[in-house]
Write a structure and sequence with these properties.
By secondary structure, the chain is mainly alpha-helical. The chain has helices at 2-21, 27-44, 60-68, 70-75, 79-84, 88-94, 99-121, 130-135, 146-177, 179-192, 202-205, 209-222, 254-258, 304-321; strands at 25-26, 237-239, 242-244, 322-326, 338-340, 342-344, 353-358. Strands 1-7-4 form a 3-stranded antiparallel β-sheet. Strands 2-3 form a two-stranded antiparallel sheet. Strands 5-6 form a two-stranded antiparallel sheet. Belongs to the cytochrome P450 family.
Length: 362
C-alpha cells in the first residue's frame, strides 16, 4: 500500500508539472509507467523509475510489439524458442521497441540467480521478493529452476502493467471527455476527501458508489484480455441440454461478453450509471457477474486486489486533484482495433493526450 501511494504521489507531481508548463501529457505513456514501477518494485525489489523519466519510458511499446507476434507463436509453438536464440543485440536492432523488455529479462535472470544462490546458502539480502517466496515454498524442484522463475517474472510484469494501465486510459478519456461524468465524480470525491492535498484513504474511496461505477465501466471497456481463453476439462460437462465431451477445448472472448447488448445495452457507450443501485440482468443475475476483466475461477487474475487498489487510488486521487482537457485525442485512441492477446488500439494512435489543469484553477 505505501508503495502504491508513493507512486501515485509521484504521478500527481508529473501531472502538476504538465499543468505548470501547459504542455500536453500522454496518459497512454504515463499510466504504464505508473503500473510498471509499482509491479516491478513490489515483485522484484527494484524498478526502472519510469515515472521520473521525462518521456515515461516503460514496457508499453515492448509489450505491444511482442503481443503482435503472439498469433504467430500460437500457430508455430517453436517461434518464441527460435526468437530466444537470437542475441539480444541483434533483436534490439531488428525491433528497437523490445530493448526495455530485453533489459528487464537480463536483470531478472541475474536476480533469480542471486536469489537461488542465497537460498542454497541459507542467507538473504534485501527485502523479500516473489523469487525468494517461491524458493521457500513447497513447490517441487522443477518449478524452482532459474529458467522457470525468469519466465514467471515476465508473466507477472506483463499482467501487472498493461491491463491496469489501459483501464486507467479508457476511464480517463471518457471521464475527461464527458463533463457530466467528471462533475459528478469530482463532487463525490470532494465530499469524501475535503483536503485535496492529502492522498485519499483507500477505505473511504471503496465506499463511493460513483467512483466504483466509473472503475467498473473502465474495466468493462478495457476488457483485460482481448484474446480467447481456451480451457479443457478432464470430465464431460453438462451445459443445459448439451453434453460437452471430456478434453474438448472450450474458449470464450471477454470482448463478446462485455458487448452483449442483452446484458449491457448501448454497450459501446461509457455509462457508469449502469452499475449503480445493485443492478441485475433480466434473469436476476447481478450485473457484476458478467464483468470478466479479471477472468473467473482458478485461472482468475492473481493480482486482482492490487489492481483494484491501484484503480481506486489512481482514479480517486487524479480526479480529486485535476481536470483534464483532451488534446488532439478521440475515441479511436481507446477503441479496440487489434487483438494482440491484450487489446490494442489503431496502429497510428498517438495515445490519450491531455492538457492538465488543477481543480483549484478550474
Amino acid at each position: 500500500m505505501p508503495l502504491i501511494c508513493e507512486n501515485i504521489e509521484l504521478m500527481s507531481r508529473r501531472l502538476s508539472e504538465s499543468q505548470e508548463s501547459n504542455r500536453p501529457l500522454c496518459l497512454t505513456d504515463a499510466f504504464p509507467a505508473l503500473t510498471g514501477d509499482i509491479i516491478m518494485e513490489y515483485s522484484f525489489g527494484f524498478c526502472y523509475k519510469s515515472l521520473e523519466d521525462q518521456k515515461f519510458a516503460s514496457f508499453h511499446e515492448a509489450f505491444n510489439a511482442i503481443g503482435a507476434a503472439g498469433h504467430i507463436g500460437a500457430q508455430f509453438p517453436g517461434f518464441f524458442w527460435l526468437m530466444n536464440q537470437i542475441p539480444d543485440s541483434i533483436t534490439e536492432k531488428l525491433q528497437p521497441a523490445l530493448a526495455s523488455l530485453l533489459r528487464m529479462k537480463r536483470d531478472q535472470w541475474d536476480l533469480v540467480a542471486k536469489t537461488i544462490r542465497e537460498h542454497d546458502a541459507g542467507t538473504q539480502s534485501g527485502r523479500r521478493t516473489i523469487f525468494s517466496e517461491i524458493m521457500q515454498s513447497n513447490l517441487p524442484p522443477e518449478d524452482k529452476t532459474q529458467q522457470r522463475l525468469a519466465d514467471e517474472a515476465q508473466t507477472v510484469v506483463g499482467a501487472g502493467v498493461e491491463t491496469t494501465s489501459f483501464a486507467l486510459c479508457v476511464g480517463s478519456f471518457h471521464i475527461a471527455g464527458t463533463p457530466r461524468i467528471y462533475e459528478r465524480l469530482h463532487t463525490e470525491l470532494v465530499a469524501a476527501c475535503p483536503d485535496w492535498t492529502a492522498l485519499p484513504d483507500l477505505h473511504e474511496l471503496e465506499k463511493l458508489p460513483y467512483l466504483k461505477a466509473c472503475i467498473l465501466e473502465s474495466l468493462r471497456l478495457s476488457y483485460g484480455l482481448s484474446a480467447r481463453n481456451p480451457r479443457t476439462h478432464d470430465r464431460p460437462i453438462q451445459y443445459k441440454e448439451w453434453t460437452i465431451p471430456a478434453e474438448t477445448v472450450i474458449a470464450m472472448t471477454i470482448v463478446d461478453v462485455h458487448h452483449d447488448e442483452k446484458i449491457f445495452p448501448d454497450s459501446h457507450a461509457f455509462v457508469p450509471e449502469r452499475w449503480l443501485n445493485d443492478p441485475k440482468t433480466a434473469d436476476g443475475t447481478p450485473l457484476e457477474h458478467y464483468l470478466m476483466a479479471f477472468g473467473r475461477g482458478p485461472r482468475a487474475c492473481l493480482g486482482i486486489n492490487m489492481a483494484w487498489t491501484e484503480l481506486y487510488l489512481a482514479v480517486g486521487t487524479i480526479f480529486r486533484r485535476f481536470r483534464f482537457e483532451l488534446f488532439e485525442t478521440d475515441i479511436s485512441d481507446v477503441t479496440l482495433e487489434h487483438d494482440n492477446f491484450i487489446p490494442n488500439v489503431k496502429l497510428d494512435s498517438k495515445g490519450v493526450r491531455v492538457l492538465v489543469c488543477s481543480v483549484v484553477d478550474c
